[in-house]
């Protein structure tokens, strides 16, 4: 049996994965329900999958953060302590991550192998270009998009699905967190 793979990503309503920093973390819209839900997503054993760019960004944010910053929310700490595979042709071990390994080579081949071999689900938070390639290869079982109630037309960075293939999306789950933030979970099917 194949392990499930979830592409988990945060977005503004207009589809950007981050911003120039004028909004702060979570676009300033985090609340207790969102943070509690995020923590619950990481209570079960899973293997994290990151691309090199996302790994570097997380490692830098954590290194520069203080104990009181949003970067160290309990769910992030829990995520950081899960086993992780960083898909990269440029990074080498050891990484500044407790249980991370580097896998070099074709990301599609690496994740296809991990899906066959892993006894736990696979999850990736961020890693946009990696996950667009994995979606095109049919390796993503669930796309989990947390949409924050902001438009970032001028300050938005990293359009989540820019350059992605075309997909039909079957809605599997939806919820509203803190009365304003939407989480949508879809099963993607590549359109031929």
What does this structure look like?
The protein has 192 residues and is an alpha/beta fold. The chain has one domain (5-190): Dihydrofolate Reductase, subunit A, CATH 3.40.430.10. The chain contains 5 helices and 10 strands, in the order E-E-H-E-H-H-E-E-H-E-H-E-E-E-E. The protein has helices at 32-41, 52-64, 74-80, 107-117, 128-136, and strands at residues 5-12, 16-19, 47-51, 84-87, 100-103, 122-125, 142-148, 156-159, 167-177, 181-190. Strands 5-4-3-6-1-7-10-9 form an 8-stranded mixed sheet. Strand 9 (167-177) and strand 10 form a beta hairpin. Helix 1 (32-41) runs parallel beside helix 3. The radius of gyration is 16 Å and the shape is globular.
Q: Which CATH top level class fits?
A: Alpha Beta
CATH topology: Dihydrofolate Reductase, subunit A
Count of individual helical segments: 5
Number of domains: 1
CATH-level-4 superfamily name: Dihydrofolate Reductase, subunit A
The outline comes out as: globular
Q: H/E series, N to C?
A: EEHEHHEEHEHEEEE
Low-confidence stretches: none
């Amino acid at each position: 049996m194949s392990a499930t793979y979830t592409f988990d990503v945060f977005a503004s309503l207009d589809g950007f994965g981050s911003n120039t920093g004028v909004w702060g973390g979570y676009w300033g819209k985090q609340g207790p329900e969102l943070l509690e839900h995020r923590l619950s997503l990481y209570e079960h054993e899973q293997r994290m999958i990151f691309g090199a760019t996302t790994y570097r960004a997380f490692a830098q944010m954590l290194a520069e953060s203080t104990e009181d910053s949003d970067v160290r929310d309990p769910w992030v700490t829990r995520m950081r302590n899960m086993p992780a595979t960083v898909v990269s042709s440029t990074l080498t071990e050891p990484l500044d991550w407790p249980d991370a390994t580097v896998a070099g080579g074709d990301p599609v081949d690496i994740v296809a192998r991990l899906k066959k071999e892993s006894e736990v689900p696979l999850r990736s938070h961020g890693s946009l270009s990696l996950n667009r390639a994995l979606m095109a290869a049919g390796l993503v079982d669930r796309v989990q998009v947390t949409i924050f109630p902001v438009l970032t037309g001028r300050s938005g960075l990293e359009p989540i699905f820019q350059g992605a293939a075309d997909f039909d999306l079957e809605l599997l789950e939806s919820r509203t967190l803190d009365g304003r933030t939407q989480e949508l979970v879809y099963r993607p099917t590549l359109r031929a």
